[in-house]
Amino acid sequence: LPPTSGIRVNQESYAPGLPKRVTLISDSTAAQTWTLKNSAGTAVATGQTRPRGADAASGENVHEIDFSAYDTVGTGYTLSVGSETSFPFDISTAGPQKLRYDSLAFFYHQRSGIAIDAAYVGAAYARPAGHINVAPNQGDDNVPCRSDLNCGYTLDVRGGWYDAGDHGKYVVNGGIAAWELLDEYERAVRLGDASAFGDGKLAIPERANGVPDLLDEARWEVDFLLSMQVPDGKPNAGMVHHKIHDAQWTSLPTRPDQDSQPRRLSPPSTAATLNMAAVAAQASRLWRTVDPAYSAKLLAASEKAYAAAKANPAVLADPNDGTGGGTYSDNTVTDEFYWAAAELFATTGKSAYRTDVTGSALYRGKSFTTHGFDWASTGALGDITLALVPTDLPAADVTAIRTAITTTADSHLAQLATMGYPAPYRTADGSYEWGSNGLVANNGVVLALAYDFTKQDKYRDGAFAAMDYLLGRNPANYSYVSGHGDQPVRNVHHRFWAHELDASLPTAPPGALSGGPNSGLQDPTAARLLTGCAPQRCFVDDIQAYSVNEVAINWNSALAWLSGWVAEKTSS
Ligand code: 9MR
């Protein structure tokens, strides 16, 4: 590795024919000369930096280097200014092609209830099935409610993906992650190249079952979401339990099969019920021809959930239910109602759902903000579906939704132009929050969709800029994606990928996205090491720093969507 240098690049690759921009840290107000060298050390291009002055998000004085004009494909390029040299990078289309699949492989690694097989992931990442009721696990096959609930039944909720570095399974977060993988597929079917996700494309047990692998991976989670529904004949039948996780937090490291904590269901919530309704409706239309019986089962579960949510419209998850798992509490469910209605309408065309969509205050793209969408803000997901899937909504209304997407993308572009380290994401006070990298990636999705709908290059370039930020053009000087780039995160917060704590365990496999900078510093390690940090610098690659360096299915689903799109745009 070169000495820590003030030149920050996409550590993996820049695409031929597209903008290639780099950030230099420098207090100089005068332009400086940069030199691009090939892997043999020969200068192949040179130019002047553009001084940008003080940059709020990083707290640094910066210059921009733009070497877009140089387009010769190759590996091992470096940029130099004075005595400083960047990490090496490629000019190539290969990086995105690999990241498209590495980011999806993350989900197989996170599977609960199935042995992770060396045949698909290699020996280092193989592990026994977690939470199938083999001691010391207490199993997810027969899970009771929390002791204060007395719900009078247990559920078999094996399967699904572990949320993150912990072993909780949370419906609202699992739902948006599954939705985003399914949306990646649906967008490719309608606007791109779905063959990239066909059978045999992923290293998963279902790779030769005749079904597109992206659907297979998502189904592992969708089946879990369905299993969280309250059975018929029980109180709140049709509602969906908010989450299932350990009674007490386990320590790091803990391999999933070695977790001995009791597992408990939290109460149903309106948000979880609508989230499942939305995803099951979306899945129902995607499996319509692939597996009609499954498609029908999904739609029945979705409609039952939606009706139950309408009958119980304000059952909120407890913001204090945070022992042994995250809370994922959310006081506003207007957006979940809109999203579920939109998915049900797009799938069925029924007038009742149409009325709920068009009657919502969120109709016609009101949900889009420069903050972005996440597990608590789901209205945009409904709009993305309505912008993609043909329905009998008035054409002008569909146009209004697409315009909301492009208008939001324009706001991102205006902001990117002012930033030293362009990242599409903005909060009211300029702070960065828990999981900021997931929001950056999701806003990259908005830029990508704006390109899909308009074919204007500026939006495509904005989506690529988001990838540049995630892959190393940032003040932390990390690629936030494990195994990609010269200085990738290695010590993400994870109970199995805990090599930092136990040398017999692996580091994160390639393609896992760290949550990234969080000005809130909500864990003791981040608070100790990062006090006073500028927003984009509130990051440390430490396994204990869970509020800045955890991985999570909702962040990786955003990376998967965006990198799949970038891969499509760089394949010739
Ligand atoms: O991603 C979640 C973030 O938006 C919240 O601010 C944070 C604190 O409640 O929780 C994050 O989600 C974590 C969850 O609660 C437990 N599993 C790990 C998740 C990622 O850190």
Automatic annotation (TrEMBL):
Q: Extract the ranges annotated as region (Disordered).
A: 250-269
Using the UniProt record, name the top-level EC class of this enzyme in a single word. Answer: hydrolase
> Which reaction equation describes what this protein catalyses?
Endohydrolysis of (1->4)-beta-D-glucosidic linkages in cellulose, lichenin and cereal beta-D-glucans
Alphabetical keyword list? Carbohydrate metabolism, Cellulose degradation, Glycosidase, Hydrolase, Polysaccharide degradation, Signal
GO MF annotations in UniProt: cellulase activity; polysaccharide binding
> Tell me, what is an example of a GO biological process annotation in this record?
cellulose catabolic process
Catalytic residues as annotated in Swiss-Prot or TrEMBL? H493, D541, E550
Top-level division of the source organism's lineage: Bacteria
EC numbers listed for it are 3.2.1.4
UniProt similarity note: Belongs to the glycosyl hydrolase 9 (cellulase E) family.
What protein is this chain from? Endoglucanase
Species per Swiss-Prot/TrEMBL record: Amycolatopsis pretoriensis
The uppermost taxa in this organism's lineage are:
Bacteria, Bacillati, Actinomycetota, Actinomycetes, Pseudonocardiales
Which stretch of the full sequence is covered here? Answer: 182 to 753 of 958
